[in-house]
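Below is how a single chain appears once it has passed through the pipeline. First comes the sequence as given, then the structure the pipeline wrote out for it. We keep one example in the README because the format questions we get most often are answered faster by looking than by reading.
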Amino acid sequence: MVKPARARPLDYATLAEWRYQLRLLLGRRETAARAAGVEPQQYVMLLQIKGLEARGAVTIGKVAERLQIRHHSAVELVDRLVERGMVARRRREGDRRQVMVMLRPAGEVKLRRLALNSLAELRAEAPALLATLRRLLRHANGRGR
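Resulting structure:
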């Protein structure tokens, strides 16, 4: 981790603003997920499964890493999504210790609606997020405002 020599008061204000903007964005995504009938972590799990599909087989271990949760917590999350018909699981051929997860049609539909809404919100929020990030980067590089 790179440490700046000394943090100036404006560094704190800009960093606080960045965290605030991210938290607002994430809070709205959590609210949208609940309104769509899924828990926020379930939405993120669906998104990670879909996002990882292009890279090959998706294991519970991979999604646990992406969600930054313990393996057993990912298993419980997958269990709930399987019960709701949004995710399927199967043992990996050749290595039965690994459990593969994939979206089912119901999960695809739910994810698509939420992801489209999320992208629209990101487009609207991008200018403010980018402006704050640029201020942070200028300070990190010692260039001030």
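The chain has a mean pLDDT of 90.

See the next section for the split statistics.
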